[in-house]
Amino acid sequence: MIYDGEWRCGKREGFGTLSKTDPETKEYVRVFVGSWRNDKKEGAGTYFYSPSAFYEGQWSEDQRSGWGRMQYENGELYEGEWLKDKHHGQGLLLLANGNRFVGTWSDGQKNGHGKFLYLDRGQLYEGFWVDGVAKCGTLSDFGREAADRPPVYPIPKVCLQDSQAVLMEAQAYFTEEKEKSTDPKSYGC
Question: Is 27 helix (H, G, I), strand (E, B) or coil?
Fold first, then answer.
C-alpha cells in the first residue's frame, strides 16, 4: 500500500490518497481518496472496492457513517444515512432491476416506515418493516399498465371501514414486539 497525503506525528492526518498494487496488472490503483484523522478515514471520502463498486460519503473512525452513496458490484445502489458501516436512518435502495425501497433503516435492515416500488410488476407497497421483513401495510397497483410483468389481476380496493386504524394497531403491536426483543430485561435471566 502507498499513501500520498498529509501526515501528523507519523499518522495519516488531513487529505490523502491510499493506493494498492493490482495483483493482475502490478500497477497501483486507488483504494481511498479523502480525509484522515489519527490514521483512520474521517470526514468526506471515496473508497473503491472494485472498478464497479465504491462508496462516496462520510466516514467516522474508519467506518461509513453519515450521508453516503454505495454503488454495489451487482448494480444496486444505496443512497442515504449510514452508521458504523450499515444502512441506518433514511435511505433509498435502488435494485438492479429498477425496483426500489425508500424509507427507514436500522442496523443495515429495513426498520420502520417505507415504500417499496415494484416497477417490474406495477405495484407499490407502503408499510412498516421490522428487521427487514414487511409486517403491515397496503399493496396497490401503481403504473401497472406500463409494467414488464404485471400480475394477471388488479389488486382489489380495500373496503374496511377504517383501514388506517387497522394499520396503526398492527404497527403498534410490531413496534412493541421489536422493543421487547431488544430489551435486556425481557430475557428472563
Answer: coil
